[in-house]
Amino acid sequence: MIWSKFAPVCFVAVLGFLASSASSRGQEPGQPQQPMVYEDTVGGLRVIEEGQPPVMIHATLDEMKRFRETHPNARPGSVQAASTSNDLYYHGGVGGIGVETAPKIYLVLWGSQWNNNDPSGEAAILENFYRGAGGSSWLNSVTQYCQGVASGTYFCNGAGTAAGNKTGIFVAVWADNTSAAPSKPRQSQLAAEAVRAAQHFGNTSASSNASVQYVIATSTGHSSNGFKTQYCAYHSATSSTVGNVAYTNLPYITDAGASCGANFNGLGPKAGITIVSGHEMAETITDQFPNGGWLDSGGAENGDKCAWISSGQGASADINLSTGTFAVQSLWSNAFNSSSGGCVLTYP
């Protein structure tokens, strides 16, 4: 995600990126980029391991707060005049894929460290949240974005093939617990676990992974370097013998406390679990293989533009799903407010 100097906008305006100069073109997941540093940035697209593709980082609450304190033009929750400069647009896809047209989510509880060691009950919370999210009005904003249209498209208007929001988006969970996961897993190790998950679930071709995301959840005390100080989670993709595989690095969120959502907006000590996982899920649906999907002119995805809003339009809140009540953040909608664009908790 790439941010240059900006005008006032109606979202969390500052989840910027370290990215390549070819920001408007989707790249093959296996092709690492050479990052360029842009001013006025926090979080975002970064190369965190040499030889690996960039990852889309979900910045911590602390990083966002520090940025807002020094950037008065960042006004999350306010509503501005219509302008496509604020909106997401299609970046051309990677191998023809820009969005998940029939999303499927597989949850992987990686490592024997999970055995009888889940103090916050994150595994059950994640599974129930994913089971209920598909078909919800909260997630439905993703359906306004599509693939099979020209790069630079802002509004699909029925063209192309839309991102999906079907019920039953969650497929299965795999407790990969026969051996320990690394104590501080690197990106390459997380990517390899995602490929193993694809093989475990029988998704052994590019076509079978075209609308799939694998959430690699690590147990308490065993998260990757940078968690809770630089990011709460990230999503990326890797090339493999089973095709391009999209995955999320989801650390044990409650280990980060308030930095990753504990008690955010008074939503409870476990609020960050679903705020962060929902953020990554929605971003992967609309930008499966970063950054070939839907991003704005600065490279922000639909989750980043609405992250950590505490008041006003799009503030994080509880939503009711068929599987329970869960805290979520809002998601960016180009169509909001007569196509002015903005952060929404329900769509249309």
Question: Your description of this structure?
Answer:
This protein has helices spanning 61-70, 122-133, 187-200, 271-286, 336-339; strands at 44-46, 55-59, 89-90, 104-110, 146-147, 161-162, 170-176, 212-218, 231-238, 245-250, 294-295, 317-321, 324-328, 331-333, 342-344. The chain is built from 5 helices and 15 strands. The strands form 5 sheets. Strands 1-2-9-10-8-4-7 form a 7-stranded mixed sheet, with helices on both faces. Strands 3-11 form a two-stranded antiparallel sheet. The radius of gyration is 18 Å and the shape is globular. Helix 2 (122-133) crosses helix 4. The chain starts with 43 loop residues before the first strand and ends with a strand. By secondary structure, it is an alpha+beta fold.
Topology:
Layout: E1 44-46, E2 55-59, H1 61-70, E3 89-90, E4 104-110, H2 122-133, E5 146-147, E6 161-162, E7 170-176, H3 187-200, E8 212-218, E9 231-238, E10 245-250, H4 271-286, E11 294-295, E12 317-321, E13 324-328, E14 331-333, H5 336-339, E15 342-344
Parallel strand pairs: 4-7, 4-8, 8-10
Antiparallel strand pairs: 1-2, 2-9, 3-11, 5-6, 9-10, 12-13, 14-15
Helix pairs in contact: 2-4
**Which value, in Å, is the CA radius of gyration?**
18 Å
Low-confidence stretches: 1-27, 30-41
The secondary-structure class comes to: alpha+beta
Beta-strand level of the residues, as a percent range?
15-25%
Record field, number of beta strands:
15
In short:
This protein is an alpha+beta fold and 348 residues long. It has helices at 61-70, 122-133, 187-200, 271-286, 336-339; strands at 44-46, 55-59, 89-90, 104-110, 146-147, 161-162, 170-176, 212-218, 231-238, 245-250, 294-295, 317-321, 324-328, 331-333, 342-344. A hairpin with a 2-residue loop joins β12 (317-321) and β13.
